[in-house]
Design brief:
about 200 residues, alpha/beta, seven-stranded parallel sheet, disordered C terminus
Length: about 200
């Protein structure tokens, strides 16, 4: 199967305390699969990562997992991926995820999710790619972060144009459709392979 598009999902290797996060991960995976897409993600089978991968597969989508050797046991590498890439470093993981995706979305997660989101956003700011980036703000999880980012703009450390490089939303179906529409309108100057 040749997927119509490829979406990279950043999310937690834990399920979190609120059932809404599991439901959101399931909805994201289901949407990707039902629309003939491909999931690119961190390659684990635990937490939200496992949920989004399983939902994508169950809905007929393709799953590409990319995981560093150091996390194969910790995050339980998912042998059910259509492609499972075991790489040497986190840097390789993130570069490959960036290259294989048409758009990116961050679900709830911890420090790894935050770091991946901010790095792909930084790469876009620097012109290394022009791919759509979204934050799925389920159950108010990212309210504090979005408030802080607005504070950073008010304090003069960021500009409105930088905030304009990302989208946020609370409804998985709406946000994913917006990201895919943007990806199709701006298939994007991808210089990631050159600079990484």
């Amino acid at each position: 199967m040749n997927p119509d598009f490829s979406i990279c999902v950043y999310c937690g290797s834990r399920p979190g305390e609120q059932p809404e996060h599991i439901a959101a991960a399931r909805a994201v995976g289901q949407w990707i699969g039902e629309h003939g897409g491909q999931l690119v993600y961190g390659g684990g089978r635990t937490g939200l990562m496992g949920t989004v991968a399983e939902a994508t597969r169950a809905a007929g989508g393709r799953v590409v997992g990319i995981i560093p050797k150091a996390l194969v046991d910790k995050e339980l590498a998912n042998p059910l991926c259509d492609e499972l890439h075991i790489v040497d470093t986190m840097h390789e993981r993130k570069a490959m995820m960036g290259e294989r995706a048409d758009a990116f979305v961050a679900l709830a997660g911890g420090i790894g999710t935050f770091e991946e989101l901010f790095e792909i956003w930084t790469w876009r700011q620097l012109g290394y790619h022009d791919k759509a980036i979204g934050i799925l703000n389920t159950a108010g999880y990212y309210d504090g972060l979005l408030s802080f980012l607005a504070h950073s703009v008010r304090e003069g450390f960021m500009g409105d144009w930088q905030m304009g490089l990302i989208r946020s939303g609370t409804e998985p179906v709406v946000l994913l459709a917006e990201l895919l529409d943007e990806a199709r309108r701006h298939p994007g100057s991808d210089k990631l392979a050159e600079v990484l």
